[in-house]
Automatic annotation (TrEMBL):
Signal peptide: none annotated. It is found in: Cell membrane. Keywords: Cell membrane, Membrane, Transmembrane, Transmembrane helix. InterPro entries: MFS, MFS_trans_sf. It holds the Pfam family MFS_1. The keyword Membrane applies. The keyword Membrane applies. This is MFS transporter.
Amino acid sequence: MLSVLRNRTFRRLFTAQAVALAGTGLATVALSLLAYDIAGNSASAVLGTALAVKMVAYVAIAPLAGALADRIPRRTLMAAMDLTRAGIALALPFVTEIWQIHLLIFLLQAASATFTPVFQATVPEVLPAEKDYTRALSLSRLAYDLESLFSPALAAALLTLVSYDWLFAGTCLGFLASAALVVATVLPRPAPVERTGGPYAKAAFGTRLFWATPRLRALLALDLAVAAAGALVLVDTVVLVQGHFGRSAGAVSLALGAYGAGSVLTALLLPRLLRRRTDRAVMLPAAFALPAVLASVAALTATAPGGWSWYAVLAAWAAIGAASCAVLTPGGRVVRRSTADPDLPCAFAARFSLSHGCWLLTYPLAGVLAAGAGLAMTALVLGGVCLAAAGAAAAVWPARDPSRLEHVHPDLPAGHPHLADARPAADGWRHGHHYVIDRHHHRWPAGGLTGPSRGR
Protein backbone atom coordinates (compact mmCIF):
# COMPACT_ATOMS: atom_id res chain seq x y z
CA MET A 1 0.00 0.00 0.00
CA LEU A 2 2.79 2.44 0.90
CA SER A 3 4.38 2.08 -2.54
CA VAL A 4 2.12 4.84 -3.90
CA LEU A 5 3.94 7.30 -1.64
CA ARG A 6 6.87 7.06 -4.03
CA ASN A 7 4.83 9.30 -6.31
CA ARG A 8 5.95 12.75 -5.22
CA THR A 9 2.71 14.50 -6.14
CA PHE A 10 0.50 12.02 -4.31
CA ARG A 11 2.87 11.98 -1.32
CA ARG A 12 2.45 15.72 -0.89
CA LEU A 13 -1.31 15.58 -1.36
CA PHE A 14 -1.65 12.69 1.09
CA THR A 15 0.51 14.49 3.65
CA ALA A 16 -1.65 17.60 3.22
CA GLN A 17 -4.72 15.47 3.88
CA ALA A 18 -3.15 13.82 6.94
CA VAL A 19 -2.07 17.05 8.66
CA ALA A 20 -5.43 18.67 7.94
CA LEU A 21 -7.18 15.65 9.46
CA ALA A 22 -5.01 15.88 12.57
CA GLY A 23 -5.91 19.54 12.90
CA THR A 24 -9.59 18.73 12.50
CA GLY A 25 -9.32 16.10 15.25
CA LEU A 26 -7.84 18.65 17.64
CA ALA A 27 -10.63 21.08 16.77
CA THR A 28 -13.28 18.45 17.57
CA VAL A 29 -11.98 18.06 21.12
CA ALA A 30 -11.49 21.79 21.61
CA LEU A 31 -14.97 22.55 20.29
CA SER A 32 -16.53 20.20 22.83
CA LEU A 33 -14.72 21.99 25.66
CA LEU A 34 -15.63 25.40 24.26
CA ALA A 35 -19.30 24.41 24.03
CA TYR A 36 -19.25 23.28 27.67
CA ASP A 37 -17.70 26.59 28.74
CA ILE A 38 -20.46 28.54 26.98
CA ALA A 39 -23.50 26.30 27.44
CA GLY A 40 -22.68 24.14 30.48
CA ASN A 41 -24.97 21.12 30.71
CA SER A 42 -26.59 22.11 27.38
CA ALA A 43 -23.30 21.50 25.56
CA SER A 44 -24.61 18.27 24.03
CA ALA A 45 -27.45 20.17 22.39
CA VAL A 46 -24.97 22.72 21.02
CA LEU A 47 -22.76 19.97 19.60
CA GLY A 48 -25.74 18.10 18.19
CA THR A 49 -26.83 21.22 16.35
CA ALA A 50 -23.25 21.77 15.17
CA LEU A 51 -23.25 18.23 13.75
CA ALA A 52 -26.49 18.93 11.90
CA VAL A 53 -25.04 22.23 10.61
CA LYS A 54 -22.00 20.30 9.36
CA MET A 55 -24.16 17.86 7.41
CA VAL A 56 -26.30 20.65 5.94
CA ALA A 57 -23.13 22.42 4.76
CA TYR A 58 -21.85 19.19 3.19
CA VAL A 59 -25.12 18.49 1.38
CA ALA A 60 -25.71 22.05 0.19
CA ILE A 61 -22.20 23.23 -0.68
CA ALA A 62 -20.43 20.14 -2.05
CA PRO A 63 -22.30 20.06 -5.41
CA LEU A 64 -20.88 23.50 -6.20
CA ALA A 65 -17.30 22.26 -5.71
CA GLY A 66 -17.31 20.53 -9.09
CA ALA A 67 -18.49 23.70 -10.80
CA LEU A 68 -15.82 25.78 -9.05
CA ALA A 69 -13.15 23.29 -10.11
CA ASP A 70 -14.03 24.10 -13.74
CA ARG A 71 -13.42 27.81 -13.19
CA ILE A 72 -10.62 27.98 -10.61
CA PRO A 73 -7.32 26.05 -10.80
CA ARG A 74 -7.59 23.13 -8.41
CA ARG A 75 -4.39 23.94 -6.56
CA THR A 76 -5.57 27.50 -5.97
CA LEU A 77 -9.02 26.34 -4.88
CA MET A 78 -7.74 23.74 -2.40
CA ALA A 79 -5.16 26.13 -0.92
CA ALA A 80 -7.81 28.85 -0.56
CA MET A 81 -10.09 26.45 1.31
CA ASP A 82 -7.23 25.48 3.64
CA LEU A 83 -6.51 29.14 4.38
CA THR A 84 -10.20 29.76 5.00
CA ARG A 85 -10.33 26.88 7.48
CA ALA A 86 -7.19 28.14 9.21
CA GLY A 87 -8.73 31.60 9.65
CA ILE A 88 -11.95 30.16 11.08
CA ALA A 89 -9.98 27.97 13.51
CA LEU A 90 -8.20 31.07 14.81
CA ALA A 91 -11.54 32.84 15.30
CA LEU A 92 -13.21 30.03 17.31
CA PRO A 93 -11.48 30.72 20.66
CA PHE A 94 -12.92 34.25 20.66
CA VAL A 95 -16.61 33.36 20.31
CA THR A 96 -18.91 34.17 23.22
CA GLU A 97 -22.33 33.14 21.87
CA ILE A 98 -23.74 29.84 20.72
CA TRP A 99 -24.92 31.27 17.37
CA GLN A 100 -21.34 32.31 16.63
CA ILE A 101 -20.22 28.70 17.05
CA HIS A 102 -22.87 27.51 14.61
CA LEU A 103 -21.99 30.20 12.05
CA LEU A 104 -18.27 29.46 12.15
CA ILE A 105 -18.90 25.70 12.01
CA PHE A 106 -21.02 26.20 8.89
CA LEU A 107 -18.27 28.24 7.22
CA LEU A 108 -15.61 25.73 8.27
CA GLN A 109 -17.56 22.77 6.92
CA ALA A 110 -18.48 24.65 3.73
CA ALA A 111 -14.75 25.05 3.07
CA SER A 112 -14.22 21.33 3.79
CA ALA A 113 -17.13 20.45 1.49
CA THR A 114 -15.32 22.30 -1.30
CA PHE A 115 -11.81 21.00 -0.58
CA THR A 116 -12.58 17.29 -0.18
CA PRO A 117 -14.35 16.51 -3.51
CA VAL A 118 -11.71 18.44 -5.46
CA PHE A 119 -8.99 16.50 -3.64
CA GLN A 120 -10.79 13.21 -4.37
CA ALA A 121 -11.13 14.08 -8.06
CA THR A 122 -7.43 14.94 -8.33
CA VAL A 123 -6.06 11.66 -6.93
CA PRO A 124 -7.15 9.42 -9.88
CA GLU A 125 -5.49 11.85 -12.27
CA VAL A 126 -2.27 11.72 -10.25
CA LEU A 127 -2.44 7.89 -10.04
CA PRO A 128 -4.06 6.70 -13.30
CA ALA A 129 -3.15 3.00 -12.81
CA GLU A 130 -6.03 1.19 -11.11
CA LYS A 131 -3.84 -0.76 -8.67
CA ASP A 132 -2.15 2.46 -7.53
CA TYR A 133 -5.46 4.25 -7.19
CA THR A 134 -6.85 1.35 -5.12
CA ARG A 135 -3.88 1.58 -2.78
CA ALA A 136 -4.38 5.34 -2.52
CA LEU A 137 -8.04 4.85 -1.57
CA SER A 138 -7.11 2.36 1.15
CA LEU A 139 -4.38 4.67 2.43
CA SER A 140 -6.81 7.58 2.55
CA ARG A 141 -9.35 5.43 4.46
CA LEU A 142 -6.56 4.43 6.83
CA ALA A 143 -5.72 8.08 7.45
CA TYR A 144 -9.33 8.84 8.42
CA ASP A 145 -9.48 5.88 10.78
CA LEU A 146 -6.14 6.56 12.42
CA GLU A 147 -7.09 10.19 12.91
CA SER A 148 -10.22 9.16 14.82
CA LEU A 149 -8.11 6.87 17.01
CA PHE A 150 -5.08 9.06 17.71
CA SER A 151 -6.31 12.69 17.57
CA PRO A 152 -8.15 12.38 20.93
CA ALA A 153 -5.00 10.92 22.49
CA LEU A 154 -2.90 13.75 21.04
CA ALA A 155 -5.40 16.30 22.32
CA ALA A 156 -5.35 14.73 25.79
CA ALA A 157 -1.54 14.91 25.85
CA LEU A 158 -1.53 18.55 24.78
CA LEU A 159 -4.17 19.47 27.36
CA THR A 160 -1.77 18.42 30.10
CA LEU A 161 0.53 21.23 28.92
CA VAL A 162 -1.77 23.97 27.58
CA SER A 163 -5.39 25.15 27.77
CA TYR A 164 -7.87 23.95 25.15
CA ASP A 165 -7.72 27.32 23.34
CA TRP A 166 -4.29 26.31 22.09
CA LEU A 167 -5.80 23.27 20.37
CA PHE A 168 -7.41 25.66 17.91
CA ALA A 169 -3.91 26.99 17.18
CA GLY A 170 -2.87 23.42 16.40
CA THR A 171 -5.83 23.17 14.05
CA CYS A 172 -4.76 26.36 12.31
CA LEU A 173 -1.20 25.08 11.89
CA GLY A 174 -2.54 21.86 10.38
CA PHE A 175 -4.52 23.73 7.74
CA LEU A 176 -1.62 26.12 7.01
CA ALA A 177 0.72 23.16 6.53
CA SER A 178 -1.83 21.55 4.23
CA ALA A 179 -2.08 24.76 2.17
CA ALA A 180 1.70 24.98 1.89
CA LEU A 181 1.94 21.39 0.67
CA VAL A 182 -0.82 21.91 -1.89
CA VAL A 183 0.81 25.08 -3.23
CA ALA A 184 4.16 23.26 -3.54
CA THR A 185 2.58 20.45 -5.58
CA VAL A 186 2.45 20.48 -9.38
CA LEU A 187 -0.88 18.91 -10.33
CA PRO A 188 -1.73 17.30 -13.68
CA ARG A 189 -3.58 19.56 -16.07
CA PRO A 190 -7.24 18.49 -15.94
CA ALA A 191 -8.98 17.45 -19.13
CA PRO A 192 -10.88 20.29 -20.82
CA VAL A 193 -14.55 20.54 -19.92
CA GLU A 194 -16.90 20.97 -22.88
CA ARG A 195 -20.11 21.21 -20.85
CA THR A 196 -21.98 24.51 -21.01
CA GLY A 197 -24.15 26.15 -18.42
CA GLY A 198 -23.69 28.03 -15.17
CA PRO A 199 -22.42 26.70 -11.84
CA TYR A 200 -25.80 25.36 -10.77
CA ALA A 201 -26.27 23.48 -14.06
CA LYS A 202 -22.83 21.94 -13.64
CA ALA A 203 -23.56 21.06 -10.03
CA ALA A 204 -26.82 19.41 -11.08
CA PHE A 205 -25.00 17.27 -13.63
CA GLY A 206 -23.26 15.31 -10.87
CA THR A 207 -26.60 14.34 -9.35
CA ARG A 208 -28.00 13.44 -12.77
CA LEU A 209 -24.93 11.29 -13.41
CA PHE A 210 -25.69 9.26 -10.28
CA TRP A 211 -29.33 8.89 -11.23
CA ALA A 212 -28.60 7.80 -14.82
CA THR A 213 -25.84 5.25 -14.06
CA PRO A 214 -27.02 1.96 -12.49
CA ARG A 215 -23.85 1.21 -10.55
CA LEU A 216 -23.82 4.75 -9.15
CA ARG A 217 -27.44 4.41 -8.02
CA ALA A 218 -26.33 1.21 -6.28
CA LEU A 219 -23.43 3.08 -4.70
CA LEU A 220 -25.83 5.63 -3.21
CA ALA A 221 -27.94 2.80 -1.74
CA LEU A 222 -24.79 1.26 -0.26
CA ASP A 223 -23.88 4.63 1.27
CA LEU A 224 -27.29 4.63 2.96
CA ALA A 225 -26.61 1.16 4.41
CA VAL A 226 -23.30 2.36 5.85
CA ALA A 227 -24.91 5.52 7.22
CA ALA A 228 -27.62 3.49 9.00
CA ALA A 229 -25.10 1.18 10.69
CA GLY A 230 -22.63 3.99 11.38
CA ALA A 231 -25.31 6.15 12.99
CA LEU A 232 -25.96 3.42 15.55
CA VAL A 233 -22.26 3.44 16.45
CA LEU A 234 -21.62 7.18 16.43
CA VAL A 235 -24.87 8.32 18.04
CA ASP A 236 -25.77 5.52 20.44
CA THR A 237 -22.45 4.10 21.68
CA VAL A 238 -22.43 6.27 24.79
CA VAL A 239 -25.98 5.21 25.69
CA LEU A 240 -25.18 1.56 25.08
CA VAL A 241 -21.94 1.57 27.07
CA GLN A 242 -22.93 3.72 30.04
CA GLY A 243 -26.70 3.22 30.09
CA HIS A 244 -27.08 -0.45 29.20
CA PHE A 245 -23.78 -1.89 30.42
CA GLY A 246 -23.14 0.64 33.20
CA ARG A 247 -19.50 1.04 32.25
CA SER A 248 -17.25 4.07 32.55
CA ALA A 249 -16.64 6.82 30.03
CA GLY A 250 -13.34 5.15 29.15
CA ALA A 251 -15.27 2.15 27.84
CA VAL A 252 -16.93 4.44 25.30
CA SER A 253 -13.50 5.12 23.80
CA LEU A 254 -12.80 1.38 23.82
CA ALA A 255 -15.98 0.64 21.86
CA LEU A 256 -15.29 3.38 19.32
CA GLY A 257 -11.71 2.11 19.11
CA ALA A 258 -13.03 -1.36 18.21
CA TYR A 259 -15.07 0.21 15.41
CA GLY A 260 -12.00 2.03 14.12
CA ALA A 261 -9.78 -1.03 14.44
CA GLY A 262 -12.13 -3.08 12.26
CA SER A 263 -12.00 -0.39 9.60
CA VAL A 264 -8.20 -0.08 9.78
CA LEU A 265 -7.66 -3.81 9.36
CA THR A 266 -10.00 -3.93 6.37
CA ALA A 267 -8.29 -0.94 4.72
CA LEU A 268 -4.99 -2.81 4.95
CA LEU A 269 -6.45 -5.94 3.34
CA LEU A 270 -8.52 -4.34 0.57
CA PRO A 271 -5.83 -3.65 -2.08
CA ARG A 272 -4.96 -7.36 -2.26
CA LEU A 273 -8.62 -8.42 -2.16
CA LEU A 274 -9.63 -6.03 -4.94
CA ARG A 275 -6.95 -7.46 -7.22
CA ARG A 276 -8.81 -10.78 -7.16
CA ARG A 277 -12.47 -9.71 -6.92
CA THR A 278 -14.64 -7.03 -8.49
CA ASP A 279 -15.91 -4.01 -6.60
CA ARG A 280 -19.43 -5.43 -6.65
CA ALA A 281 -18.27 -8.79 -5.29
CA VAL A 282 -16.63 -7.04 -2.32
CA MET A 283 -19.12 -4.27 -1.58
CA LEU A 284 -22.43 -6.16 -1.72
CA PRO A 285 -21.52 -8.98 0.72
CA ALA A 286 -20.13 -6.35 3.11
CA ALA A 287 -23.38 -4.39 2.89
CA PHE A 288 -25.48 -7.50 3.56
CA ALA A 289 -23.31 -8.25 6.61
CA LEU A 290 -24.41 -4.98 8.23
CA PRO A 291 -28.08 -5.90 8.90
CA ALA A 292 -26.96 -9.26 10.30
CA VAL A 293 -24.62 -7.52 12.75
CA LEU A 294 -27.31 -5.00 13.76
CA ALA A 295 -29.74 -7.86 14.38
CA SER A 296 -27.21 -9.38 16.77
CA VAL A 297 -26.86 -6.02 18.52
CA ALA A 298 -30.64 -5.88 18.91
CA ALA A 299 -30.59 -9.32 20.53
CA LEU A 300 -27.74 -8.31 22.86
CA THR A 301 -29.46 -5.12 24.01
CA ALA A 302 -32.83 -6.85 24.50
CA THR A 303 -31.37 -9.06 27.24
CA ALA A 304 -29.72 -8.30 30.57
CA PRO A 305 -26.04 -7.41 30.16
CA GLY A 306 -23.48 -10.06 31.00
CA GLY A 307 -19.71 -10.26 30.85
CA TRP A 308 -19.70 -12.08 27.52
CA SER A 309 -22.22 -9.69 25.94
CA TRP A 310 -19.86 -6.74 26.41
CA TYR A 311 -17.18 -8.48 24.37
CA ALA A 312 -19.80 -9.46 21.81
CA VAL A 313 -20.69 -5.79 21.38
CA LEU A 314 -17.01 -4.91 20.88
CA ALA A 315 -16.84 -7.60 18.20
CA ALA A 316 -20.02 -6.23 16.59
CA TRP A 317 -18.60 -2.70 16.52
CA ALA A 318 -15.40 -4.02 14.90
CA ALA A 319 -17.51 -5.90 12.34
CA ILE A 320 -19.49 -2.75 11.51
CA GLY A 321 -16.23 -0.84 11.01
CA ALA A 322 -14.84 -3.58 8.78
CA ALA A 323 -17.98 -3.91 6.64
CA SER A 324 -18.36 -0.13 6.33
CA CYS A 325 -14.77 0.22 5.14
CA ALA A 326 -15.29 -2.58 2.60
CA VAL A 327 -18.25 -0.65 1.18
CA LEU A 328 -16.85 2.88 1.31
CA THR A 329 -13.26 2.40 0.14
CA PRO A 330 -13.95 0.88 -3.32
CA GLY A 331 -16.59 3.55 -3.93
CA GLY A 332 -13.99 5.87 -5.42
CA ARG A 333 -13.16 3.18 -8.00
CA VAL A 334 -16.84 2.90 -8.91
CA VAL A 335 -17.14 6.68 -9.38
CA ARG A 336 -13.97 6.80 -11.45
CA ARG A 337 -15.10 3.92 -13.67
CA SER A 338 -18.46 5.60 -14.27
CA THR A 339 -17.25 9.11 -15.08
CA ALA A 340 -15.39 10.85 -17.89
CA ASP A 341 -12.19 12.51 -16.68
CA PRO A 342 -13.43 16.10 -17.11
CA ASP A 343 -16.48 15.30 -14.96
CA LEU A 344 -14.64 13.76 -11.99
CA PRO A 345 -14.98 16.88 -9.78
CA CYS A 346 -18.75 16.97 -10.38
CA ALA A 347 -19.07 13.24 -9.72
CA PHE A 348 -17.08 13.23 -6.49
CA ALA A 349 -18.87 16.37 -5.31
CA ALA A 350 -22.23 14.70 -5.97
CA ARG A 351 -21.21 11.58 -4.05
CA PHE A 352 -19.91 13.68 -1.16
CA SER A 353 -23.21 15.56 -0.98
CA LEU A 354 -25.55 12.60 -1.49
CA SER A 355 -23.71 10.31 0.93
CA HIS A 356 -23.78 12.95 3.65
CA GLY A 357 -27.47 13.41 2.92
CA CYS A 358 -27.82 9.77 4.01
CA TRP A 359 -26.07 10.57 7.29
CA LEU A 360 -28.32 13.59 7.74
CA LEU A 361 -31.27 11.18 7.69
CA THR A 362 -29.80 8.43 9.87
CA TYR A 363 -28.21 10.56 12.61
CA PRO A 364 -31.51 11.96 13.95
CA LEU A 365 -33.25 8.64 13.35
CA ALA A 366 -30.72 6.87 15.59
CA GLY A 367 -31.05 9.53 18.27
CA VAL A 368 -34.85 9.75 18.31
CA LEU A 369 -35.37 5.99 18.26
CA ALA A 370 -32.87 5.36 21.06
CA ALA A 371 -34.54 7.95 23.27
CA GLY A 372 -38.12 6.85 22.54
CA ALA A 373 -38.04 3.14 21.71
CA GLY A 374 -34.83 1.81 23.23
CA LEU A 375 -31.60 0.45 21.82
CA ALA A 376 -32.97 -2.92 20.68
CA MET A 377 -35.68 -1.35 18.52
CA THR A 378 -33.18 1.23 17.22
CA ALA A 379 -30.84 -1.54 16.09
CA LEU A 380 -33.72 -3.43 14.44
CA VAL A 381 -35.02 -0.39 12.54
CA LEU A 382 -31.56 0.69 11.38
CA GLY A 383 -30.83 -2.92 10.45
CA GLY A 384 -34.00 -2.90 8.35
CA VAL A 385 -32.75 0.24 6.59
CA CYS A 386 -29.42 -1.53 5.93
CA LEU A 387 -31.16 -4.60 4.53
CA ALA A 388 -33.47 -2.59 2.27
CA ALA A 389 -30.57 -0.46 1.00
CA ALA A 390 -28.33 -3.47 0.34
CA GLY A 391 -31.18 -5.25 -1.44
CA ALA A 392 -31.84 -2.20 -3.60
CA ALA A 393 -28.15 -2.00 -4.52
CA ALA A 394 -28.07 -5.67 -5.50
CA ALA A 395 -31.16 -5.22 -7.66
CA VAL A 396 -29.92 -2.06 -9.40
CA TRP A 397 -26.28 -3.09 -9.97
CA PRO A 398 -26.20 -5.79 -12.69
CA ALA A 399 -24.13 -8.86 -11.90
CA ARG A 400 -22.73 -8.62 -15.43
CA ASP A 401 -21.55 -5.03 -15.61
CA PRO A 402 -19.08 -4.58 -18.49
CA SER A 403 -17.43 -1.23 -19.07
CA ARG A 404 -17.71 -1.53 -22.86
CA LEU A 405 -21.27 -1.30 -24.17
CA GLU A 406 -22.64 -1.48 -27.68
CA HIS A 407 -25.08 1.35 -28.39
CA VAL A 408 -26.64 3.37 -31.20
CA HIS A 409 -26.55 7.11 -31.89
CA PRO A 410 -29.66 7.90 -33.96
CA ASP A 411 -29.16 11.65 -34.23
CA LEU A 412 -25.45 12.34 -34.68
CA PRO A 413 -24.59 13.27 -38.27
CA ALA A 414 -22.24 11.23 -40.44
CA GLY A 415 -18.70 12.46 -40.02
CA HIS A 416 -19.18 13.49 -36.37
CA PRO A 417 -15.86 13.00 -34.52
CA HIS A 418 -17.49 10.72 -31.96
CA LEU A 419 -18.54 8.31 -34.74
CA ALA A 420 -15.03 7.68 -36.06
CA ASP A 421 -15.25 3.95 -35.33
CA ALA A 422 -19.04 3.57 -35.80
CA ARG A 423 -20.79 1.50 -38.45
CA PRO A 424 -24.16 2.23 -40.10
CA ALA A 425 -27.23 0.62 -38.51
CA ALA A 426 -30.94 0.68 -39.35
CA ASP A 427 -31.64 3.30 -36.69
CA GLY A 428 -28.41 5.31 -36.71
CA TRP A 429 -24.76 4.65 -36.04
CA ARG A 430 -23.63 1.75 -33.87
CA HIS A 431 -20.37 1.33 -31.99
CA GLY A 432 -19.04 0.23 -28.59
CA HIS A 433 -16.67 1.78 -26.08
CA HIS A 434 -16.22 2.42 -22.36
CA TYR A 435 -19.65 3.86 -21.61
CA VAL A 436 -20.30 6.82 -19.31
CA ILE A 437 -22.98 9.46 -19.17
CA ASP A 438 -21.68 12.56 -20.94
CA ARG A 439 -22.72 15.06 -23.60
CA HIS A 440 -23.05 12.32 -26.23
CA HIS A 441 -24.70 9.73 -23.94
CA HIS A 442 -27.63 11.06 -22.00
CA ARG A 443 -29.23 7.76 -20.92
CA TRP A 444 -27.94 4.33 -19.98
CA PRO A 445 -28.36 1.72 -22.72
CA ALA A 446 -31.50 -0.40 -22.34
CA GLY A 447 -30.74 -3.86 -23.68
CA GLY A 448 -27.41 -2.60 -25.02
CA LEU A 449 -28.91 0.36 -26.96
CA THR A 450 -29.22 4.02 -26.11
CA GLY A 451 -31.99 6.38 -26.90
CA PRO A 452 -31.29 9.66 -28.67
CA SER A 453 -28.07 11.29 -27.52
CA ARG A 454 -28.43 14.72 -26.02
CA GLY A 455 -26.08 17.47 -24.94
CA ARG A 456 -25.93 18.23 -21.26
